[in-house]
# Entry
Amino acid sequence: MNEFELIARLTPTLPGNASVIVGSGDDCAILEAGWADQVLLFKTDAVVEGVHFTKETPAGKIGRKALARCLSDIAAMAGTPVSALVTLGLPQPVDVSRIEAIYAGMEALAREHGVAIVGGETSASPNAFWMSVAMTGTATRGKSPLRSGARAGDAIFVTGRLGGSLLGRHLEFEPRLIEARWLVEHFAINAMMDLSDGLAGDLRHILNASGCGAEIRAASVPISREAKLHARSGSMAKPPLAAALTDGEDFELLFTLPARQAVSLLDTWKSRFPGLPLTCVGKITSEPGLRLRDKHGVRVLAANGYVHLA
Ligand SMILES: [Mg+2]
# Structure
């Protein structure tokens, strides 16, 4: 049973109450807090030694990443982060100076984004160090694009360049908070999420939630420099396009909007965010499934997100 099958098994019986506007299944929960124009966002995310970082990872970058992952999910809802709670799983004996350095990295990023760290919890952990961050945020009522909002005919966009993040970028990525709020303010964004599992896998979440399909143009996928360099480094490396489609941890925005807004979006984006690429990678279709169009024609992408390139 994979992670997604487990989640699908657990979520149908979760208790709800009158506060829940959007529960499990999107980047953040959206909750009623009694505010006229705003709603509460709520999110949790963990990083584990040996999974998201190694013993050799500089401590400050571990703390930064743990917080940044939650910030990226708040961005996916076009929200503004507010506060965080931090839980640590600590192998014994506790390496105090390493934990202080982890906190310094986390606190620096929290200050940058005006996030208060308001408490937490520690537990002994038999083997690996891990940390979990729970975060609240706010968003304008009705303005958070959900995964279920994509419509046939939408253009599909991604920010940044994809693939090879684990070669370094995953420890230093910038959550796209300002960009996401700007997008929602100026364009009819139908669906949005942040890229954590790779474009092919994450787009599939949008397609499943929205009940539609998509076609990606291989030549349009923005491939990172790392993914291109890594592909040249040896026979075990993934082809760069496969890396851009299936590597995780990009933490860029993936969103859809009506195709008629695409040109105007690209024009205004260029002057507002000149340093960050924005790319149309394909279109939402009424025909279900995820397809890749390249010079050989159109092929269906495998369910696991992996594409076997000839
Ligand atoms: Mg997410």
